[in-house]
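Reopening this one. Same input as before:
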Amino acid sequence: MMRHAVLRPLFIVAMLAVLAGCAGRAMVLLVPDAIGMGESETVLVASTRVFENGDWGSDRLEGLSFVGFDVHIPPDREPGEVRPVRERQRGVDPAEDFLVTRAEALNGAAGFRAALRQTLATRPQGQREVMVFVHGFNNSFADGLYRTAQIRHDFDVPGVAVHYAWPSAANPLGYAYDRDSALFARDGLEQLLREIAAEGAHRIVLIAHSLGSNIAMEAMRQLRIAGRQDVLDRIGGVILMSPDIDIDVFRSQALRIETLPQPFVIFTSQRDRALRISATITGQRARLGNLGTVEDVADLEVTLVDLSEFRGGVRDGLNHFTVATSPAMIRLLQDVAQVNLSLEGDATQDFGLLPGTILTVRNATQIMLNPLTQALP
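Same output, byte for byte:
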């Protein structure tokens, strides 16, 4: 027994070390000539990463910096696939690579609000929505930027795409650093949500992945403590994808927020290997994102969507981002109003269109989706 107790953490470290050496760091590469060679998504970015030597690194910035990008979506890819240019990559192919065709530094919060105001003004009154995406563990600036564009594009999410880039170490061995950075980053996200609400967005959809889910919950908790119900009232939907949060911590956050924005959807999976590692590191049986039963959150008004019967895309070997990387999952969800976030109301009404089993326990609902044609590994 003692031998196994010693070997387990060594195995985890070895596994993470292998992952760390799999590929070079993703890069934001400006290629204006790629305009017209694919589709494009405009993404506004608020960041708490330090910018130096021409890149956004892992050092923590006190305050927020703001940048606007046009992201090139390559035509030759599967839904859910994001292929950024990496440090050791030879050559660039606009047919396959995610690139940037425009990058514009915005003049602080005022510049960000001006850019947001300009974009919102092009949309009909009553349809001025903002999608805010918060990336997760082990993400570079480029990873989060391109993933925001991919989610906006593949799910055709309405509204303006905004990305919150917090200072992840972008290293599989940097889990402790990222957990501390997630706490550091909560003030920045709170400020960003205030800026968006002040600029007139009638609805904010907050989407977060992995450790980013903890940042999202903490920011909403802080808004509640600060008495900013006006900002919370603008949040018209929350989606947590594979949330890497202690279940008891999530419950305390939700209870302090008191009234959770609706719809409030949590995507979970028993196949999520990254969350198994996280649970082992933290000495727990599970995290919120691989919660097996709805009982632990039955008193909260949430919808759990269990994706355990699906696997992630080709670049998601840990099944840690299945909802956004699995082509089969994306095809199922693309036409569902709840996920496209174009309608408000009861989550179960829209998810009921999907193949699966729906279980309601007190205030919570669990939906266990079944694939139609996907072969399991």
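So the earlier flakiness isn't reproducible anymore. For the record, The radius of gyration is 20 Å.
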